[in-house]
Specification:
This protein has 312 residues and is an alpha+beta fold. 29% of the residues lie in helices and 25% in strands. The relative contact order is 0.21.
Length: 312
């Protein structure tokens, strides 16, 4: 699973406020984690930021070594610019290698974030886009934008990164464990089922295509293989800033690729002949200083700095 040609390790530092629309209000002022605000009287606010940056730099170097790939130029500088950062590992998907790959990424994260709370999430992305050819029985692509360039995605614990606006999450998505991604059968690309699959769609896509729970999308891949997607829910992104764009392979600050995602279960993505063209695996490693108390934060400052200097 891990080789220098198929694995990339990148660090991102997304702002914590939502993207500003041209006609929308100015972004809200970003706030430090609660623990950093509470610790201000002890002079630990800057320590909280520096610990995050140093830990992410250390994680970046360690995970890059694990993957056998190089660190993206300027990554550490971007981390220093924003404490709301995450380390992302992307790899070509192979069912037989997922269990080992997932274990290795999580083990590397545990080593470099030793003593600091962090969460690692795994996901699969269908990089071969599908297009809408009909909605609710009306044949033909939608008249407006949004009907092409859609990508199926399955992520661990989807409900932690999306708030339902309507309906429900498809079965096997809301609280999907890592095991749902590491024990998938080997299904050759473009083979498998063409049966209908349940999906949840982003609010922006639902508005563009006038979708709601119960809507049925007829989609096809680049080879005109067709299937039906049943919309069970509409969601709005929440939780860690940048999670959905990272899972969509879009690491730009103003990217909108995540607005064209179709959330399905890992089993459905892997097993669908229309959706499983060229899957990629993604891991998001997120330090969580909000769960770190002031005493532990102060104690980590020196050890983290020395570890980062050795790794960078």
């Amino acid at each position: 699973m891990f080789d220098s040609a198929g694995v990339h390790v990148v660090a991102t530092a997304f702002t914590s406020s939502p993207r500003q629309r041209p006609d929308g209000p100015p972004p809200t002022r970003r706030r430090l984690p609660a623990v950093a605000r509470r610790a201000a009287q002890h002079g630990l606010v800057l320590a909280a930021v520096s610990v995050t940056v140093l830990l992410c730099a250390t994680a970046l170097a360690a995970l890059a070594g694990l993957a056998g790939s190089s660190v993206q130029a300027g990554a550490v500088r971007r981390l220093a610019a924003d404490p709301n950062a995450q380390v992302n590992v992307n790899a070509s998907y192979r069912a037989g290698g997922m269990a080992v790959a997932d274990r290795d990424v999580r083990a590397a994260a545990e080593r470099v974030f030793a003593g600091v709370p962090q969460r690692t999430y795994v996901g699969l992305l269908g990089t071969s886009a599908v297009s809408v050819t009909g909605i609710d029985g009306v044949v033909g692509p939608p008249r407006g934008p949004g009907g092409s360039g859609l990508h199926p995605v399955a992520v661990q614990h989807a409900a932690g990164f999306g708030e339902l606006v309507a309906g429900r999450w498809p079965a096997g998505t809301a609280d999907a464990p890592a095991g749902a991604f590491t024990s998938l059968p080997d299904v050759p690309v473009a083979t498998g089922s063409t049966a209908p699959v349940d999906t949840a769609v982003p609010d922006a896509l639902a508005k563009r295509l006038d979708l709601r729970p119960g809507s049925r999308l007829r989609v096809q891949d680049a080879f005109s293989r067709a299937m039906t997607l049943r919309v069970t829910g509409v969601f709005r992104a929440t939780g860690a800033v940048g999670f959905w764009p990272a899972m969509a392979g879009d690491l730009t600050q103003d990217g909108t690729t995540d607005q064209g995602l179709l959330v399905v279960s890992a089993a459905a993505l892997n097993g669908s002949a229309v959706l499983n063209g060229h899957l990629t695996a993604h891991w998001s490693v997120q330090p969580d200083l909000s769960r770190l108390d002031a005493d532990r934060l102060a104690g980590l400052r020196a050890t983290t700095r020395s570890r980062a200097w050795r790794a960078v």
